Amino acid sequence: MSEKVSIVSVKHTGSPVYLGVRSGHHSWTQNPYEVLEWMGNSWRLRFNQHRSKRKKWEEVTRKSGKEQKMLVPIGDSVTDVTDKQARTEFSSLAALPSMILQSAERIEDSTWWAAVKRRKTSGGKMPRFRSKKSQGNIFTCWFNKGSNATYQKTGKKTGIITIKGQNPSKYNKPGHKSRWALKIRIKHSGREFSQYTSVQVNATTMSAVFTCTPKKLTRSHDQHSIGIDRGGVIAVATSDGQSLSPDTKLTSQWDEKRVYHQKKMSKMRSRASNSAKEEFISKNHNLPKDELFHKAHQAGKEAMYQVMKGVKYQHHKERSEHYSSKIAKYREAWQQEATTMLVRSSDRIVLEDLKVKNMTRKGGKRKRGMNRSFLAFSPARFATMLEYKTLLAGGELIFVPPHHTSQRCNDCGYTAKENRESQAVFVCKSCEHRDNADNNSASNIEDYADYLYGTYQGTDLSASGEIQESGSGVIIRATPSKEDVEGFYARKQPNCNDAINLSSVV
To answer: pLDDT: is 3 or 41 the higher one?
Structure first.
């Protein structure tokens, strides 16, 4: 859980801060924004030092001339020193607060292994070194039970973050003491920050993020199991007949306003560009054709950039971003509420192990519309929320393969592509069972988990799958064999006599 806030102003108190050796001389400052910049640069330096120890597989030519894959450091050089040694070797780290210096190692380690885990499931590249240009000038300070990054409320939606530091005695500026403090005034939504573990400050965007301690969830103990199907029209459909979706009427109003401002911005850019092109061509029509159109294009781009700097354009841009932010915050709040409700009311939750990236690849006009509708509900983030909340509440979350769950009749077990009459309607061609397509799919998802792992009381954790446990919470990613899949879809109820041909099911 985290809360992003905006930084209003920064103030420095106490002695000048030692910044290290610059241009061959010791440097101090009392400029709060310069101190903020120094903290971000120093934290990034230490982060990249830890990252330099990581290795990658690379083709290396040995002395014998034979090429072989070996683990080599990701950087040109490796800096393997302790925090104490780093303060001595790098003067810019000498006065950096220990709660900031220590955070670099832990965050580097967590981001690296998170990427390793992500690569196993969804792929992607491994992270490299942190860059100020791409990621901004940021640093993280541990709260550590009030040791630093303390927060004081000053108003209903305002407060002050205090980061304390101390210069080494040998680096005190003559005539000054060693202790100093940086007071960061913030504006927030009115939330209480009574329980947080760290504060991340971004000096580039002038914002801060509180990493809050998640509250332990209490749940019912009635042995309730539920299957969940995530879709585009209905965000969440459950096996017990529920259909959960955010208020699309409200978000559509905000989206209309967002689109209005975006169209205004687009018109301003195109008008400026086209008029500049026409003017240039009319004045320089004697130039060669290729040169004429190239320079006209450049003139159009320059005119467009000038318009984008204007007050009117920036107003539309600000309003567009405002409504985009409102939509995103509303949908996230709805997801938080929905996932909390599901985890509290269920001992076991079953989800499809969807590969969202593969499902939303480029396609035709209809496919693009479906992708936008599906991604609007952030199905991947919904699953992530269920994961950590399940571990907090001590429940069970099972991911099952998604194959054919939308084509199987939950009433008789008949599986066929023709069962889906439309996106919303399911009609079984064998027993004529009629149901909402999403709710039918959710029931199949729950049945799939029952088949693989038994009922809740008799869960067999020895079945194939990746298991993650934390406290009393369990997350299982089922990886059934081909025989298990065929066995589940071959199961038939007495009222279904039709044979199932899985090879014909898409």
So the answer is: 41
